[in-house]
Amino acid sequence: MLLSSYSYKQSEYLNLHNQNVNELALTIFNNVINAQKTYKFHNIIIKRFLWNYYNRSSTGVFHKDISEKYPDNYGSVVYYLNSCDAKTVVNDIEVQNKASNAILFNPKTIHCGTGPTKDKYKYALNVLFEFEKCTVNTKEG
Predict the structure, then answer these.
(1) How many H helices and E strands in the chain?
(2) Is residue 89 within a helix (H) or strand (E), and if so which, with residue range?
(3) Which residues of the chain have pLDDT under 70?
(4) Whose CA is closest to 88, among 66, 107, 55, 114?
(5) Ramachandran class of 90: left when φ > 0, alpha when ψ lies in -120 to 50, beta otherwise
(6) What is the pLDDT of residues 43-68, one digit of tens each?
């Protein structure tokens, strides 16, 4: 079983009913964006918070978070809320679920979440966001 629940979807104004959950999601998102040092995103607009639960019988499907018709100024973050033996596959790269880790990728990239096989469950937060401009930090350190 794979359960997904939006706590915020800009087009549906769900944020009015999930204030505390959205504040938590925004805090997590901001921490992820600030912790990574490769990219600097300017004027971010959150498009959705999607909370995912997987159990041992969960099977994700390969998908894109947005279609090719959207401009290139969108990003996706998957943040792992617990450690388990599940994975996220982005293109052909498998990323192990480890609590407090996150991946940042282009939402037009095909990806899939997998359920755990030994552990009981997987929890993850997916954030889709838009930005006005993105610069690359070329400084090391």
Answers:
(1) 1, 10
(2) strand 87-90
(3) 1-4, 6, 8, 10-18, 140-141
(4) 114
(5) beta
(6) 999 999 999 999 999 888 999 999 99
In a 3-state reduction of DSSP, which class is residue 17?
Answer: helix
How much is the pLDDT for 1?
45
State residue 60's pLDDT score.
87
Closest to 89 measured CA to CA, from 67, 65, 61, 70: 61
Predicted structure pTM score: 0.88
Query: How far, in Å, CA of 39 to CA of 33, rounded?
Result: 8
Q: Hunting for tokens 């925004």 — which residue is that?
A: 26
Write the DSSP assignment of 24-61 as a string of letters: HHHHHHHHHHHH--SEEEES-EEEEEEEEEEETT-B--
> What is the predicted pLDDT for the residue at 22?
85
The burial class, CB within 10 Å (0-12 / 13-18 / 19+), for 89 is middle
Chain-centroid distance, C-alpha 129: 9
